Amino acid sequence: GAAASRTTRSTARSKASAGAAGAASVAKFGRSTSSSREINVQSAHPSSALSQGGEIVKGGYRIYWQRWLMLFYMSALNLLSDWTCYSVAPISVLTREAFGDVDPELLVVIFLGANAVASMCEPIILSRLGLRKTVVFGSLLLMVGSIVKSGGVPLIMQSNLEQGKGEWRVYLGFFLVGLSQPLYQCTPALLSASWFPEKERTMATGIALNSNQLGIGCAFVFGTLLVATSDDIVPYFELLSLIATITFVGCAMQFDDAPPTPPSETARVMRGTVEINVPSMGDMKNMITMSIRGAANLAS
User: Fold this and answer.
1) Which of 131, 151, 165, 196 is 20 to 30 A off residue 273, Cα-Cα?
2) How far apart are alpha carbons 71 and 77 in whole angstroms?
3) Is the CB of residue 216 less than 8 Å from the CB of residue 83?
């Protein structure tokens, strides 16, 4: 009887300690790092998010499948940026025929120069905008740069490039994509700390960073497979524009700073100090629903 009583008291103390650790982690999770504003996460305790799904891991913390979606978007952005950087390398002769006097080496210099400038500004941008807005801003620059470079997007905007007279578009497009890259290339570690449990963070960070190398491979593989003549250059660049546009829309609607509850005691989140409302998937659904109801009321 005495042994059972001691066991019961020990179990109660363990549960109390776990609850205190979870509460402390939630308090830290509700604060953004650096100079970012504090966020009040009232429903961040693991026990209060049971209705939101997710898998419970050691320590009573909850992880969500959406972490893989966030990793997918960040990896796709990194892949696309380096795909663009080296897209001209295997088809430089045909690119000159399509756009005029385009120097592949100068394109890389412009890309890396813009990349260096944005890398110096990235910590300031991240502390002001937070993870979500920084990544969405980077994906916007990537999309705009890709569209400028190609002159259009398939099924959305017809390309109006004139052969031999569009070299300025290529240079400007590369510059914009170079500016965009640090905004998502320098943030995989923060994404891992916000969304992933400790045992998955190294893997998640590695996947996002190594996507750059995969993008270089795509540039050489698809460049040689899809481009046979100078007439194939514009459709090839339009394909990149379409992928970049889809990725931007996905990021704007689904990418988030952090899950509803912290994945571990050491989780961190960066939300920023600037209030900029970028509509999420739920916001878009609510707006559409309200518009339909308003139209129905007017019709009746």
Assistant:
1) 196
2) 10
3) yes
CB 36 within 8 A of CB 29: no
* Predicted confidence (pLDDT) per residue in 104-147, tens digit: 888 889 999 999 999 999 999 998 999 999 999 999 999 999 99
* 107: alpha, beta or left? (left if phi > 0; alpha if psi -120 to 50): alpha
User: At residue 27, does pLDDT exceed 70?
Assistant: no
**What is the mean predicted confidence (pLDDT) over 253-278?**
75
Direct distance between the N- and C-terminal alpha carbons of the chain, in angstroms, rounded to an integer: 74
pLDDT in tens, 55-69: 776 667 788 899 999
Contact assessment for residue 199 and residue 263, using Cβ atoms and an 8 Å cutoff: no
Domain of 129 in residue numbering reads as 62-254
Is residue 234 situated within a structural domain?
yes
Question: CATH number, domain at 228?
Answer: 1.20.1250.20
- Render pLDDT for 146-184 as a digit per residue (tens, 0 to 9): 998 887 665 566 666 666 566 788 889 999 999 999 999
Cβ neighbors of 243 (< 8 A, separation 6 or more) are 76, 80
The pair of three-digit structure tokens given for residue 189, joined into one six-digit string: 């570690």
Residue 54 phi, psi (nearest 5):
105, 165
36-63 exposure pattern, b = at least 16 Cβ within 10 A, e = fewer: beebebeebbbeebeeeebeebebbbbb
pTM of the model: 0.72
> Is residue 272 in a domain?
no
